[in-house]
Amino acid sequence: MSTSKGKKVITSDKAPRAIGPYSIAIRVENLVFTAGQIGLDPAKGELVSGGIQAETRQVLNNLKHVLEASDSSLESVIKTTVFLKDMADFAQMNAIYAEFFTQKPPARSTVAVAGLPKGASVEIEVIAISDLTG
């Protein structure tokens, strides 16, 4: 983590590196804002195979690692935004999503988009509360 005027840049060896000029997450006081994650395998830097369910599972595992590096967790997520390339994938994405947010799920928006990086089917970003402040 690096700090600049109360803003902490989050890094994690367990999550994919940013594929552009952005940080994977920023923590300000006790709030964590993640960049959107797609279903990249952190070791290979490639999109996982297996369709929307495999991609959604990888996205949420990647977010779990980003949040852990931010002194947070999936249980501390207060808002998610889900971007789907095809709204017909909603039910399959939602089934996997429900496995990760079993109790007191966060607020969520889901939108269809024309395209996602690397041809991904799903991208998710979150806002969470961190266990630490400052």
Provide a descriptive summary of the structure in words.
This protein is an alpha+beta fold. It has a single domain, classed as 60s Ribosomal Protein L30, Chain: A (2-Layer Sandwich). Helix content is 22%, strand content 31%. The protein contains two helices and nine strands. The chain has helices at residues 51-69, 90-100; strands at residues 2-4, 7-10, 25-28, 31-34, 40-41, 46-47, 77-84, 107-112, 122-129. The strands form two sheets. The chain has a seven-stranded mixed β-sheet with strand order 1-2-3-4-9-7-8, with helices on one face. The protein has a two-stranded antiparallel sheet with strand order 5-6. A hairpin with a 2-residue loop joins strand 1 and strand 2 (7-10). The longest helix has 19 residues, at 51-69. The radius of gyration is 14 Å and the shape is globular. It starts with a strand and ends in a 5-residue tail after the last strand. The mean pLDDT is 94.
Q: Treating each run of at least 4 consecutive H or I residues as one helix, how many helices?
A: 2
Chain-averaged pLDDT: 94
Order of helices and strands: EEEEEEHEHEE
The spatial strand order of the largest sheet comes to 1-2-3-4-9-7-8
Q: What's the name of the CATH homologous superfamily?
A: RutC-like
State the name of the first-level CATH class.
Answer: Alpha Beta
Largest sheet: 7 strands, mixed
Helix content: 10-25%
Output the structural class: alpha+beta
What overall form do the CA principal axes indicate?
globular
From the coordinates shown, what is the CATH architecture?
2-Layer Sandwich
Number of strands: 9
Strand percentage: 25-35%
